[in-house]
Recover the amino acids of this structure.
């Protein structure tokens, strides 16, 4: 139990750091990847200024793209994320975002509609009641955050691949791109093979209750084969596309594939 | 004809005086660079969600923030893994591991530890490792293998699920990864201190003899 409090420390401290990072202008934040004190340490150790920060940044970006390709190559569409018994569920399941819970998007379920765009036969928008009619499954899996901590939770919803089939999506397209209700416009691309993975889910319930605001009401995309930031919450639209449209964290340097 | 053969043997005999062959030196320094990059970026990643009640000072971490640390870590890992794999293969294939690191006997280790603590451990012949060196060098190779395996388990916990199973579960793999890092840091302190105390060993790792 004491261990758990380290794994998921009082969220405030982390949020504070994240908030301050968030407050930095974009350019400064990106320059931080290679710049400043951290590089100084390397320079000291090697005794020469071998790495100028912009070329190091380009090198790191190229390697990250290479790592995307490697991960896509080793991705096995049939490999399932381990599932757990209910007794293994982490309580309380942590709320984690770059904002406070008080600032989390507040979506009115009655007005909300899921917008469907791109390479699909049927572009009709879906109300929450209509989505609730679709067959649902429950799975208990480990959510792994890019920060390193993990927690086990229970998610219930419709397999995304069933929905993609239902709307006549072109599953030869490269990505399903999600947009969220966050006021900064959170978005994230999901590669099609991961989107078609049997455990990838349009989630409407957490622990058998309607998804609470903290976990992404009214709909979250649960992808147990991806890191947490690639599991968008408060989803308002999905677009089936061949274009890489970037993502909120992906654009700031997190590896885009970030598969588990 | 016979005199020619002798000359040939003499020529061949010269490299025998080399304490550290070129492949060892090259791989050693590539590994040193890769390890430093991995440790400093790893501290950055650790700071995002500490396992214990402390963080590494920001100034000695690499990457500036989590994403930068991750980019460095997942770039330097290729250097570490490819170089490390080449080192293991060459070490076994050339018989260097067997010749240099074996045997390791408890009595030998005890004897040399006692000798080292009383400053009686000789370093006259650098081509032969004493038992303390053998134990530490063999041990750090095992730690190196463990840190790569636990790292891979954390990087791909679904695709490489059997690796996660090897460590128990995902959180345990994180602890294993951390303690391997701590062991490598402890090794580094002793290793660098001793190399500076016996400068000819440092010279051998740079120019070979």
């Amino acid at each position: 139990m004491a261990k758990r409090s380290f794994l998921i420390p009082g969220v405030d401290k982390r949020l504070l750091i994240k908030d301050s990072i968030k407050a930095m202008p974009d350019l400064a934040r990106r320059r931080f990847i290679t710049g400043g004190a951290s590089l100084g340490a390397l320079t000291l150790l090697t005794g020469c200024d071998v790495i100028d920060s912009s070329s190091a940044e380009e090198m790191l970006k190229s390697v990250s793209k290479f790592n995307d390709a490697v991960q896509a190559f080793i991705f096995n569409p049939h490999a399932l994320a381990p599932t757990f018994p209910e007794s293994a569920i982490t309580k309380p399941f942590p709320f984690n975002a770059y904002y406070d819970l008080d600032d989390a998007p507040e979506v009115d379920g009655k007005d909300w509609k899921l917008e469907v765009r791109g390479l699909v036969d049927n572009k009709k928008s879906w109300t929450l009641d209509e989505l609730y009619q679709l067959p649902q499954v429950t799975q208990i899996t480990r959510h792994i955050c890019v920060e390193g901590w993990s927690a086990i939770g229970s998610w219930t919803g419709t397999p995304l691949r069933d929905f993609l089939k239902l709307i006549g999506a072109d599953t030869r397209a490269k990505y399903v791109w999600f947009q969220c209700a966050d006021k900064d416009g959170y978005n994230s691309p999901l590669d099609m093979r991961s989107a078609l993975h049997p455990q990838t889910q349009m989630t409407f319930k957490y622990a058998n209750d309607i998804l609470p605001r903290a976990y992404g009401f009214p709909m979250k995309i649960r992808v147990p084969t991806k890191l947490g930031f690639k599991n968008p919450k408060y989803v308002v639209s999905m677009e089936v596309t061949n274009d890489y449209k970037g993502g909120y964290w992906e654009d700031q340097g997190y590896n885009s594939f970030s598969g588990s | 004809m016979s005199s020619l053969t002798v000359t040939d043997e003499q020529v061949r005999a010269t490299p025998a005086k080399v304490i550290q062959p070129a492949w060892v030196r090259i791989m050693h320094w590539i590994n040193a660079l890769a390890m430093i990059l991995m440790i400093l970026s790893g501290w950055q990643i650790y700071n995002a969600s500490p396992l214990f009640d402390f963080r590494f000072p920001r100034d000695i971490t690499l990457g500036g923030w989590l994403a930068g640390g991750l980019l460095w870590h997942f770039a330097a890992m290729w250097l570490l893994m490819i170089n490390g794999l080449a080192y293991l293969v060459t070490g076994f294939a050339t018989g260097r591991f067997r010749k240099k690191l074996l045997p390791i006997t408890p009595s030998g280790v005890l004897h040399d530890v006692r000798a080292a603590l009383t400053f009686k451990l000789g370093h006259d012949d650098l081509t032969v490792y004493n038992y303390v060196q053998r134990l530490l060098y063999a041990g750090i190779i095992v730690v190196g293998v463990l840190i790569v395996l636990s790292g891979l388990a954390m990087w791909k916990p679904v695709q490489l699920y059997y690796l996660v199973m090897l460590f128990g579960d995902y959180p345990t793999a994180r602890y294993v990864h951390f303690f391997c890092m701590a062991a490598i840091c402890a090794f580094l302190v002793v290793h660098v201190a001793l190399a500076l105390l016996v400068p000819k060993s440092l010279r051998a790792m740079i120019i070979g003899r």
